[in-house]
Amino acid sequence: MLRHLPEVRFLKSATHVSQLGVCHAEIALVGRSNVGKSSLLNSLADHRQLARVSRTPGRTRLINVFVAGPDRWIVDLPGYGYASGSARERSAWKDMLEGYLTLRDTLRVVLVLVDAEVGPTKLDHQMLEWLQAIDRPYRVVATKADRVKPSLQARRRRELAAALGLKPDDVAWVSSAKGTGIAELQREVAALLNLA
Ligand code: GDP
């Protein structure tokens, strides 16, 4: 099988966009915690343990950078929706995320992960509205598609897209557990990073 993202590896973590340095092109992954972001990153990289680094204590709230090709990055942003954490922590997290999303010139597209079964949460809506407000291109990716019964898939796709004001085809539908939609998304990411 042709591998579109053959050599993804961890590069570095940062607490602020100013520490990131330059690259040619990058895409970013964002979503609420537990949406399946680490699993998707592992699937995109064909690497079962890759995203473990993003999950090690101390790194879950950082910007974690993975290299997908020469000066081409996949950036894993900290998951949102932690109920815990002090107001100060939440505000630091917001600054980090907003700083990154507003300031990165080389950021091509933000993959916004939404749980296929749960549908968009209030925080997902807020994220998407905010990305629209700052004119940042994004692509919605519905995760854990295998959790939706086959007989309900088509309807669920329509409903999820409609809830976000999108057409069903605007939403990538993936399952890291089953591999559904992964090759297509790999191809899309490779093209966005000019690796195809
Ligand atoms: P993160 O917090 O967003 O990084 O989420 P994880 O990737 O750690 O996944 C959270 C939970 O969802 C874990 O228990 C995963 O096993 C599960 N999960 C992730 N992706 C899938 C999927 O495609 N299908 C199913 N059924 N479960 C998944």
What does this structure look like?
By secondary structure, the chain is of the alpha/beta class. 32% of the residues lie in helices and 22% in strands. It contains six helices and seven strands; from the N terminus they run ββααββαβαβαβα. The protein has a seven-stranded mixed sheet, with helices on both faces. Helix 5 (153-163) links the parallel strand 6 and strand 7. The chain is globular and about 45 Å long. The chain starts with 8 loop residues before the first strand and ends with a helix. Residues 31, 33-39, 79, 143-144, 146-147, 175-177 line the site of guanosine-5'-diphosphate (GDP).
Mean pLDDT: 91
Give the biggest beta sheet.
7 strands, mixed
Distance between the termini: 15 Å
Q: Quaternary status of these chains?
A: single chain
Q: For this structure, what is the CATH homologous superfamily?
A: P-loop containing nucleotide triphosphate hydrolases
Q: What's the domain count? A: 1
CATH architecture: 3-Layer(aba) Sandwich
